[in-house]
């Protein structure tokens, strides 16, 4: 995981016509890191269709409306919304767009199933966070500090559920376009990229970004292996016969031409992470908690300066790397209070 923090006051990129009938619209985010998400508009005779939607804030909704106006559209002209995944910066405005326009909203079944499972009460969210911290071996003082990180002041609203489920290979109903859904789990269980063969563009969501690496969470459920899924998804896109991409259109940062090179760089990044995890275990005589492993890994800033959400995300990512190494037979989780991770003889 890497983070990108931009100083305040930096203007959003312009609305751009990328190809005939295809536009990028930057929509601001209410976060301290990434400042915007790109919403992509596909023009048709029937109306507009969106990939991603933006966070559900008044500022984002207004910016989306202003961006659509540059392309000659209104919110009410939208006929379909295809979030790449269910995170709030991508899915958040989908329900509001649907309410104003009557558009259908599509999502992969794996993410659709999760929408109704996420806790809505702050106390329930905090309990889940504390279970993760305790499993990782976080010291009591750190747990207390992370508990003070701002949570929603009240219950979260129920998310808008999708109207359409898009599985791998499905072609959403967009007149005049041959868009294909490509299932790329990892960053979320149901993350989708979209391949548009006529223009040879890949809309990559958060799966492939040009400079930063998407956070890969840890799932405490069963033997789920989100990082393993992510790496397999990278390999799947590394097929020039199936995806001869001339340009990649990500959800954040900027578009770029070299899909193959970026896929290789992302794999190298995670290989380096695996090396750091194994080195941390060797330095601890072969056994350590996930928290102690995480402290020895390289992050975008020193561990003691990472706070709040970023520290939780780093810890979850360290656990995800440990899970992959466990699946590869290199480490084993040992029950205890807290559990520890043991390096196995190679």
TrEMBL record:
Residues 36-252 form the Metallo-beta-lactamase domain. InterPro entries: Metallo-B-lactamas, RibonucZ/Hydroxyglut_hydro, Sec-metab_biosynth-thioest, WH-like_DNA-bd_sf. This is Metallo-beta-lactamase domain-containing protein. It holds the Pfam family Lactamase_B. It comes from Frankia alni (strain DSM 45986 / CECT 9034 / ACN14a).
């Amino acid at each position: 995981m890497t983070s990108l923090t931009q100083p305040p006051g930096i203007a959003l990129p312009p609305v751009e016509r990328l190809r005939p009938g295809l536009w990028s619209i930057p929509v601001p985010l209410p976060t301290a890191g990434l400042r915007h998400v790109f919403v992509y508009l596909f023009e048709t005779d029937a109306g507009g269709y969106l990939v991603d939607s933006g966070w559900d804030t008044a500022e984002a909704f207004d910016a989306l409306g202003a961006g659509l106006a540059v392309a000659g559209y209104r919110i009410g002209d939208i006929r379909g919304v295809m979030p790449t995944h269910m995170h709030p910066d991508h899915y958040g405005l989908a329900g509001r767009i649907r309410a104003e326009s009557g558009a259908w909203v599509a999502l992969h079944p794996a993410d659709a199933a999760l929408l109704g499972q996420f806790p809505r009460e702050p106390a329930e969210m905090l309990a889940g966070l504390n279970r993760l911290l305790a499993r990782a071996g976080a010291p009591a003082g750190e747990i207390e500090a992370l508990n003070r990180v701002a949570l929603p002041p009240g219950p979260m609203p129920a998310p808008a559920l999708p109207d359409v489920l898009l599985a791998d290979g499905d072609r959403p109903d967009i007149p005049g376009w041959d868009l294909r859904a490509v299932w790329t789990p990892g960053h979320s269980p149901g993350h989708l990229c979209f391949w548009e063969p006529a223009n040879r563009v890949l809309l990559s969501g958060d799966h492939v970004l040009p400079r930063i690496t998407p956070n890969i969470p840890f799932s405490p459920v069963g033997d789920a292996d989100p990082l393993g899924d992510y790496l397999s998804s990278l390999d799947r896109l590394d097929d020039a016969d199936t995806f001869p991409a001339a340009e990649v259109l990500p959800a954040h940062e900027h578009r770029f031409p070299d899909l193959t090179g970026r896929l290789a760089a992302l794999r190298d990044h995670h290989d380096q992470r695996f090396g750091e995890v194994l080195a941390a275990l060797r330095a601890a005589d072969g056994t350590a908690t996930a928290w102690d492993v995480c402290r020895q890994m390289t992050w975008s800033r020193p561990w003691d300066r990472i706070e709040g959400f970023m520290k939780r995300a780093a810890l979850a990512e360290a656990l995800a790397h440990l899970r992959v190494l466990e699946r590869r037979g290199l480490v084993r989780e040992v029950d205890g209070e807290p559990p520890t991770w043991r390096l196995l003889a190679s």
